[in-house]
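Re: the request from the purification team.
They wanted to know what the chain is likely to look like in 3D before they choose a buffer screen. I agreed to run a prediction and write the result into the notebook, where they can find it.
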Amino acid sequence: MKILGIDPGTATTGYGIVEKKGSEVTCIHFGCVETPYGVDQAIRLHILRKELLVILEKYTPTLAGVEQLFFVKNMKTALSVAEARGVILETLHSKRVKIIECTPLQVKQAVTGYGKADKIQVQKMVKILLRLTDIPKPDDAADALAVAMYCANNSNFNS
């Protein structure tokens, strides 16, 4: 089963693809969709959808984990990310990909065993668990791989 993990954002959306065969989880690919600063939000959202469709076509995941908004200091940023999440969810749904939404706390708990782990702890565990030579960069891609691993290792989602 191929699983897509997504760390939503408007400027940068991280994504990671893992494949689960039995109890083995391997990294297939990871990266970020970046949109240009200073252009209209509608254009940024269009770019995000277009790039996500390319990823879905190329890797054909059957399951996608999308991180939820958790704690936001800036309301403008929260609204922008919420709009990106909406585009992501609709795009996944339109391609009939099963969607799992998860909180950062759930992802951290699943990957490190500690729900309040910091970013570097999560990144190091992603590297170790996926047997990568380096910590995935940028941070958004590492976070997305952690979301994909959360889905891969949660038996409730593997039907």
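For the purification team: The helical segments are 41-59, 75-94, 104-112, 119-129, 139-152.
Please add any questions underneath this entry.
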